[in-house]
Amino acid sequence: MTNTQGEIRGNRFDFLRLIFAGFVFAYHLLVLPALASPALQGMFARLAELSIQGFFIISGLLVYGSWQRSKTLALYVAKRVRRLYPAYVAVILIPAIFALLRGGALPEIIKYVLSNLAFLNFLHPTLPGMFETNPFPVVNGALWTLKIEVMFYMALPVMGWMLAKAGPYKWALMVLIYLAAEVWRYYFSHAEFIYSAQLARQLPGQMSFFITGMALRTLHAHLRDNLQITFVIAMGLLALSYLPMFGVMRAVGLGGLIFAIAYAPGPKLNAARFGDISYGLYITHFPIINGLVAIGVFANQPLQGYVWAVVLVVIASLTLWHLIEKPFLHPSSHYRQVGRHGRHKAGRQTNQDI
């Protein structure tokens, strides 16, 4: 594992991840209380879907770079565990403790904890006595994407090795992986058997977004020299992807747009200056909203419900960052460096190590 040529300097990836997490939060803020119109829910559903796909693209780019910079496989694994798992464990255990204190059946709580700690949320998504009368009784419906992230982390060393061995044929291999993922998602999206819709959005079907991020990482020096062209082409491909039979262009178009925004001239909008709360926002918002629904806040005062949801999610995200996420990160982590220096410093902050 060696460094790639060209360095990734100050950018807006932290800002974009915060925006993407915000769109998913906003979507669930409309859906879980069941108060918004179907048209508004549909619009935000599309934004949330695009945001999740954007997360996968950014993960492909940054985590591929992290793997390339890792001297050993063990170091790569350690960085991934430090970044993802401590906060994840917290958001699994806290609702389970609440359920236990409320007299929930211990065997069911144990099943929930064990299934969710293994990223198998679909096996046991609910807790006894929690949110049972809510329109959506699932404890944390946002966590389904994390098992996809983890599976990508597991596949990345193999993919990286294959790309290195492919040499001049690495682009053909990337295209093959991309198209195979698109075929998977298209087939299962249009199939009519049980669980086909769920299978469509699992990792094989999402790999086109991760591989797009990896390609952006590989091409970043060239793309940064041609940002305007990248932006125009990406916008065209993204718009085209919403036409029938052109959905295969979605990952490429969205990836190019994300890259162009991340490196466009102007202020870098350091969203992680006071803590990288995008991950915390993503994994805490669902149970907080559902909790407010359960105690009747939205039914009595919908506006207060929205305000309280935003306030509590921000507080929870900051708390999670400062008490759990940050302490577990390696001192050289990008996120700790940003917090220490207060802003990205070109020339010093040369690589995002996540």
TrEMBL record:
User: Which positions fall inside the Acyltransferase domain?
Assistant: 13-321
Mind telling me which residue stretches traverse the membrane in this protein?
A: 15-35, 47-64, 84-101, 143-164, 171-187, 199-219, 249-267, 279-299, 305-324
What are the protein's UniProt keywords? Acyltransferase, Membrane, Transferase, Transmembrane, Transmembrane helix
Instruction: Tell me the superkingdom of the source.
Output: Bacteria
The GO biological-process annotations, alphabetized, read as:
polysaccharide biosynthetic process
Which InterPro entries does this chain map to? Acyl_transf_3_dom, Acyltransferase_3
Q: Which GO terms describe its molecular function?
A: acyltransferase activity, transferring groups other than amino-acyl groups
Q: Which GO terms describe its cellular component?
A: membrane
Could you say which residues form the signal peptide?
Answer: none
Q: Which residues form a coiled coil?
A: none
By what name is this protein known? Acyltransferase
Organism equals: Hellea balneolensis
